[in-house]
Every structure is written in structure tokens, then in C-alpha cells.
Amino acid sequence: MDELMTGLLDKTDDWDWNAHFELAVEQLREKWRLGRRQALSSRSLSSLSESERSELTELARS
Which of 30, 37, 38, 40 could form a disulfide with 59 if both were Cys (CB 3.0 to 4.6 A apart)? Predict the structure, then answer.
């Protein structure tokens, strides 16, 4: 915890918190998309509902 706080306190005034936050959020979204796509694609198409098939198609396009 001390190392984390020291790292945060060492940031200079020009540190762009918003940009780093947006990057972290985008990385989380991408990780979720990948996990969801893998979860859906590991199942047979016949076991997927219509909405899950649509979601899988959309995830494959992104």
C-alpha cells in the first residue's frame, strides 16, 4: 500500500489523470469483450439464444 501511495503522490502536476482513467476503462472493456466472446464462442450455436447469437456476431465484428 505504501508503494502505491508513494507512486500516486510522485505524479507531477502535468500527469493526465483523465487520460489514464479513460485508458484503464477501455482496457477493462476490451478484456470483458474478449472474455464474453470466448465464453459465447465456446458453446455450440444451437445452445445460444437469438440474443446471444446476435451478441456474438457483434463481438466478432468489434
Answer: 37
Range of the domain at 51: 26-61
Distance CA 16, CA 11 (A): 9
Q: What predicted TM-score, i.e. pTM, was given to this entire model?
A: 0.68
**Could you list the pLDDT tens digit for every one of the 62 residues in the chain?**
666 666 666 666 777 888 889 999 999 999 999 999 999 999 999 999 999 999 999 999 98
Position 12 in a domain: no
Per the structure, how many domains does the chain have? 1
All cell numbers assigned to 56: 456474438
Whole-angstrom distance, CA of residue 36 vs CA of residue 26 = 15
Is residue 2 assigned to a domain?
no
